[in-house]
Amino acid sequence: MKRARDTRRTAVYEAETLVRRMFDVADLGDSRVVEVGGSHVTLPVERRFGSIDAAQRYVDAVLTLNWVRQRWPRATIPVRVRARAGNTAAHYEHDSATIALPERDGGDAWAFRELVVLHELAHHLDPGEPDDLGEPGEPAHGSAFVDRFLELVGEIIGPEAVFVLRMSGITG
């Protein structure tokens, strides 16, 4: 089976980058209230991780949540979090169930945050049948992925974060 073309990849990444910047600004300011699409939204707190070990503990905790295990059978498969060379992208390795987070670059740990880790977990939870390379058949950032990602974000970070992601261009 060949993986379908990933036509939403750019839109997903651009929307996530915009929302991460909104969280960054909210963390630095006096208020967490932002205006999005004519609505005033109070951004919830997004967890940040100080190390690979902290991100690993977070991933382990999410995968043991009852509702996650009931919703996605792949939650029973442990995920390893490791450091990744370079600093431009995090990624998920399906064949080894590994999330790779870029090391800190000049003190910046942009990927050591909840939104990035939940994005990678949404890849892990893909229930699709693997192709010859061990990859699921759906587009990597298709509607099923977006639905999983938004469900994780909504239940763990909060519905306000989902609203902001949707208004920024992520749709299932």
What would you note in describing this structure?
It is globular and about 40 Å long. Helix 5 runs antiparallel to helix 6. The protein has 172 residues and is of the alpha+beta class. Strand 1 and strand 2 form a beta hairpin. The strands form two sheets. It has a three-stranded mixed sheet with strand order 3-5-4, covered by helices on one side. Strands 1-2 form a two-stranded antiparallel ribbon. It has six helices and five strands.
Relative helix content: 40-55%
**Separation, N- and C-terminal Cα atoms:** 23 Å
> What's the SSE pattern?
HEEHHEEEHHH
| Low confidence ranges | none
Overall radius of gyration: 16 Å
In DSSP terms (H or I, runs of 4 or more residues), the helix count works out at: 6
Helix/strand-derived category reads alpha+beta
Q: Give the DSSP E fraction (strand runs of 2 or more residues).
A: 5-15%
What is the global morphology? Answer: globular
Average pLDDT number: 88
Q: What's the story with the biggest beta sheet?
A: 3 strands, mixed
Query: What's the total number of strands?
Result: 5
Strands in their spatial order, largest beta sheet: 3-5-4
List the helices and strands and how they pair.
Blueprint: H1 9-28, E1 33-36, E2 39-42, H2 52-63, H3 66-71, E3 80-84, E4 91-93, E5 98-102, H4 114-124, H5 143-156, H6 159-167
Parallel strand pairs: 3-5
Antiparallel strand pairs: 1-2, 4-5
